[in-house]
Amino acid sequence: MKKRPSWKIMVTVVYALVLREVQARIGSHRLGLFWMLFEPMAHIAVLMFVFTYIRLRSIPGMEFPVFLLTGLVPFFMMRNIALGLMGAVDANRALFVYKQITPFDTFIARLIVNFVLMSCVYAILMFVLGFWFGYDISIDRPLYWMWAIFVGITFSFGLGLIFCVVVEAVPELAMIIRLLFLPLYFLSGVIIPSWMLPQRFIEWALWNPYLHVMDSIRIGVFKHYPLTYGIDLNYAVKWAVVTLGLGMLLFKLRERELLAQ
């Protein structure tokens, strides 16, 4: 019998894990698939309603709902990828008795599920804004926009690998890491753009790679998005490379301990 290439085995395993992740989120309910999409959409729609119509926020020269959506969905996707990887090994530990399944397969599966889910949410909400409410939802520089999102995903994937190893060693840190994403949410330009932040504050905020990613995503979307001095996507690229490299190194060093838990 001809032995299958390792990459084909990995593709098959990841596909099966993706189906398992989706099944776990859908559950046994008939409307499970609807709720899987509706829950994040409702969350984002409520935030958009609050900030657009109750708080009456506005961004000069831009349509605020589109501005908000182009920040909320990418940030939640990146947050979910980082936190999802942190718990991937524990959630799939029973499967590691099969030698074909490795922890890294579970990381890839969670990355795919979160990416596809939030991409669907983004497409549906953009469709509603564009064709129902008549907002301009065009993307001015699609390649730059996709590159900025890719950098953010890579950075989050690296963070997720590091979190997974760290939490394996000190489980109590899981809650602290989750809480850290709350200030990051407000400090990454998701709601308030970097060019509206006080000058004394922006100098500190520029250390945050997510701020560079969020602003770069919007630079790709809006034709006349104001540029903030210091915002540089290459800075986030460097962070993404370092965190991914460090995460892979830590994972390889601690892989046996992860499986032995």
Automatic annotation (TrEMBL):
<keyword id="KW-1133">Transmembrane helix</keyword>
<dbReference type="GO" id="GO:0140359">
    <property type="term" value="F:ABC-type transporter activity"/>
</dbReference>
<keyword id="KW-0472">Membrane</keyword>
<feature type="domain" description="ABC transmembrane type-2">
    <location>
        <begin position="31"/>
        <end position="254"/>
    </location>
</feature>
<dbReference type="InterPro" id="IPR000412">
    <property type="entry name" value="ABC_2_transport"/>
</dbReference>
<feature type="transmembrane region" description="Helical">
    <location>
        <begin position="176"/>
        <end position="197"/>
    </location>
</feature>
<dbReference type="GO" id="GO:0015920">
    <property type="term" value="P:lipopolysaccharide transport"/>
</dbReference>
<keyword id="KW-0997">Cell inner membrane</keyword>
<keyword id="KW-1003">Cell membrane</keyword>
<feature type="transmembrane region" description="Helical">
    <location>
        <begin position="34"/>
        <end position="54"/>
    </location>
</feature>
<keyword id="KW-0813">Transport</keyword>
<dbReference type="InterPro" id="IPR047817">
    <property type="entry name" value="ABC2_TM_bact-type"/>
</dbReference>
<comment type="similarity">
    <text>Belongs to the ABC-2 integral membrane protein family.</text>
</comment>
<feature type="transmembrane region" description="Helical">
    <location>
        <begin position="107"/>
        <end position="132"/>
    </location>
</feature>
<feature type="transmembrane region" description="Helical">
    <location>
        <begin position="66"/>
        <end position="87"/>
    </location>
</feature>
<dbReference type="InterPro" id="IPR013525">
    <property type="entry name" value="ABC2_TM"/>
</dbReference>
<feature type="transmembrane region" description="Helical">
    <location>
        <begin position="233"/>
        <end position="251"/>
    </location>
</feature>
<protein>
    <recommendedName>
        <fullName>Transport permease protein</fullName>
    </recommendedName>
</protein>
<dbReference type="Pfam" id="PF01061">
    <property type="entry name" value="ABC2_membrane"/>
</dbReference>
<feature type="transmembrane region" description="Helical">
    <location>
        <begin position="144"/>
        <end position="170"/>
    </location>
</feature>
<dbReference type="GO" id="GO:0043190">
    <property type="term" value="C:ATP-binding cassette (ABC) transporter complex"/>
</dbReference>
<keyword id="KW-0812">Transmembrane</keyword>
